[in-house]
Amino acid sequence: MTSGMRVRMVDARARRAFERARALRAGDAEARLAARDGDGDDGDAERRARAPKTEEEWDALTEWLSLCAMAPLTLLTFPQIWKNYVNAMAGDLAAIGAVSWQGYAAGMLGNLLLLSYFADKREPTATAAQAIGVTTSFMLITQIAWSGNVHNVAPIAMASASAFIVGGASLSVARYFNYAHGARGEKLWSMYQTALGVIGLTVTPQIISNALTPGLGWLPVELSILGLVAAHRADKLPTKWSECSGWTATALFMSMPVAQIASNLHSPESLQGLSVLTSVFITGGNALMLSRAIFVKDLVWIAGSVWGAFVGGWGILATLFISHSPLTGERYITEVEFYTITVLLFSYTVIVIGSQLRSMLSDESSAESSIDASSR
Fold first, then answer.
1. Contact, 198 vs 237, CB < 8 A?
2. Count of other CB atoms within 10 angstroms of residue 101
3. Pair (348, 224) in one structural domain
4. pLDDT digit string (tens) for 1-45?
5. Cα separation of 252 and 112, whole Å?
6. Does some domain include residue 22?
7. How far apart are the first and last CA of the chain?
8. Cα–Cα distance for residue pair 270/274, rounded to 1 Å
9. Do 236 and 279 fall into the same domain?
């Protein structure tokens, strides 16, 4: 080692000792850490890695996760649309009639309600997901109607419903892109939300009743109409129809998997026709959306995503796992598949959602500490 190198090393040690002494005198925590760790770069990097994510980082991450959710949610209906197309090309129109258009119509109503809700809040990925849901369900119902398998529905009723769906979806998209504003736009949007909210409150109880308690007939609709009339006379109708539509759609979507799970447990032989992949898409799509819902603190979105992931998706997969085919005696989903999906779902929930909640609590605690310090 040359004398010049020794001098430089001594100078470096002297500089670090001086910095350490200055930090101790000034009581500066950052300088103290820098003096202790040399130039402090490694220590800063380590502290940044341990620090909770900032609000901007969580905003970007949750937006990216919800964007990833678009893939499975988009693919939910397309396999059935393609299958209907193949059957139509083969001339087997009766096979298209095996698909329940009522179920898809109920789902489309839920998508339409949530589309107006999220468009009003200008939430991009959620608005896009609901717009895709309305579009794909409308395409599938159109296939069923074209094949002549929509019975006991007058053509004028079908045409009116189609015009309302297309017009309402278009208006919601225009609202999101800031076109349905101004005096006329606000009035038109208010009229549409009121009409959609009334339809939702009237029809949704009947759909839920048909799924869970089919013996009630038309009683739910009649009670809903009476309730709306009484609320109107008492001036108790909702003032925010967007919020009402959001909760109505959430209740509608919550009832669907409950009826399906009950049917699966009661008649396991009917599970042969269920698609495992569809349930996987539902699980993954809603789980990815949940992170964004928590970030924006939207209770409607949180409730729908939690229920969709753990009941509508994983819950139905669980019924497929515990049931056995009467023909082969095997499970409808293998142990490896079910346990893999379960581990991934709950690991994602614990790691991503847990970290997000801890970060939110940390931010709130820091804000409270700042307020207390400023008050003192």
1. no
2. 21
3. no
4. 444 444 344 345 545 545 554 544 444 445 444 444 544 444 444
5. 12
6. no
7. 57
8. 8
9. no
